[in-house]
Amino acid sequence: MLLEINDLDITYGDNTPTVENVKLSLNEGEILTIVGESGSGKTTVIRSILGLLSGDGHVSKGTLSFKGRDLKDLSLKEWRELRGKDISMIFQDSGNMLNPVQTIGHQFREYIQLHSDMSDSEADAKAVEILKRMHLPNAENILSSYAFELSGGMRQRVGIAMAITFHPQLLLADEPTSALDVTTQAQIVKELMQVVKESGTAMIMVTHNLGVASYMSDKLMVMAGGRVLEYGNAKDILTNPQSNYTKTLLASVPTIGGKRYV
Amino acid sequence: MKRIIGRLMQMLGTLIGVSFLTFCLTWLAPGDPVSMLLETADTVVSAELVEQTRHDLGLDQPFLVQYVNWAGGVLHGDMGMSYSAKKPVVDKLLEGFAGTLLLAVVTIIFVLIISLPLGIWSAVKRNKLPDYIVRGLSFIGVSMPSFWIGLLLLYFFGLKLRLFPIAQSEVTAAGIVLPALTLAIYMSSKYMRQVRTVILEELNHDYVVGARARGLSETTILWKHVLPNAILPLITLLGMSIGWLLGGVAVIEMVFSWPGIGNMAVRAISMRDYPLIEGFVLWIAIVYMVINLLVDMSYSWLDPRLKKEAR
User: Fold this and answer.
1) A88 contacts B214? CB cut-off 8 A
2) Most buried residue, A8, A38, B10, B170, by most Cβ within 10 Å?
3) Mean pLDDT to the nearest integer, B199-204
4) What value of ipTM does the predicted structure carry?
5) Cα Rg of chain B, angstroms
């Protein structure tokens, strides 16, 4: 088992838990999608896997174990080695996740050298190679650009490229296509699927797009109000939902010619 | 290029406005420069002499004529003669400026040495002991008037410990420490809080989360990512402070009898030395405008987003 989460509670401050009783497990190469409305706690769950809860958020109950290691026991240094290497993350707007006053190339190189002992030119060559894999033409140009100079789709491809640099075992994707227009969404989802399948990376994706979820996932989790309403095989849930919330969610997807595309 | 010309025109307009306003105010203010000038030595002066002096100084002319004459002189690089010192105003300004510039530079260095590390420390250790200490210090520093800090320093380091001179008529290396430190303590109290706020704000940005998710250490994030971003707002503040310092901090210069431009300005005002006052105000206006310009330019140089825009 690659990732196992049991009875997870996450609390911000001293209040009652924001997320309660999350339980999930993921094998190598498996794709899990977490769907739910804004504020349902889905982002909180995946951020806790990287130890990157915002503010004073913390795991107040339960265990997270990655490759059999309890993440609670990790030192700061071990966390840093894990982040960006074994587990990496794609955000809603990857452009915002980069320092606005440094070029993309500068940060890409910094990141590659952090987890390897490549020289400057080797790191740059590696960056170019990965950008090309994400179908980004003029990779050299992109490296000398700043994040604000790229379009949304390009920024997202750069974000995905960076995230897969070290062939992580687990990729966390936080609404990776929500900020894009529909055509670009479809392309990015396809490309993401391709690289994930190629490198055998497991992925947890957070989205509120059921179409994307059904297209990609092996497993599906439905969350609302900080609780897990449904969790299991994606096909089973989509064809035979148990909770009323999931049923309503599915019913809200428009049908074309009597066929529903989820 | 168009922007620069526009900017220069704007500066010219400001200068005309500022100088005219000062002219009005000094003209309206009570006190007569001629009697100030002549009656210093307890002697009775004849009405003829007063009239003669008034005429020599051009003070018998209508207000607007006086202004136009003066402004015309300035455009030719002649700011007039100081009444009290009988020297060209330009020379007086340059004399005072040397001392003020030195004081400003040393002060800014002190401010940066004190407030940058403490402000950053306080932001990183937010709501922990170091943060409370720094905030406490800054509260005390802000609450004390700067001349009072100056007097305390003078008392302890000048009078009791005799480490530094108490008064000086010339610019000396030892003499600059106490006035600069006084100003630095006062300014740092504000700066520590500013640095803290700016750093905290930057730490909240998404790019910090992004850097953490890539595995960067907190130290790298702070020094290589947060600080370069935090510099931008701090430069604006620093520019304003430098302007303030170059205007001559009269109170501090008086307390330490530092031969700077602020000290000179106070004397000029009490003597109703119109040309010197005018020259001083014009000087401050120019300093502020030049610094604002430099700050703006540094922005477009430091921030790639503005750099692209400028092209």
Assistant:
1) yes
2) A8
3) 95
4) 0.91
5) 24
